[in-house]
Amino acid sequence: MAVREGLTDLRNLSGSADNVLVKARVTYEQDLHTHRPYQKGLLWDQSMNYGDVRPFVVYDPEIRLERGKVYILNGKDHYYEKRAEVQLLLGKGAYVNELYDTES
Hints:
CATH class: Mainly Beta
Number of domains: 1
Strand content: over 45%
Structural class: mainly beta
CATH superfamily: Nucleic acid-binding proteins
Strand order of the largest sheet: 2-3-4-6-5
């Protein structure tokens, strides 16, 4: 696992297991009411076409993302084999910062 420098576009996630920093809007979220993962949902950023999304999963009970909000997220570029999908995985202690000025 490597650490990528700077912000990574969601379209460039590949399931590499790299540690990545992304800026993205939550377009859908669902609390799972299970032990783990705690939440899943969909992210979008300007690198993607309208309607395209990237799944995320949250494994930290202290983290909850809200639909419509923009965040800076530090997580793992994860490939989930069971669904054959690339996800942003937010594990224990992941960095999550809500942006209020979404143009920056």
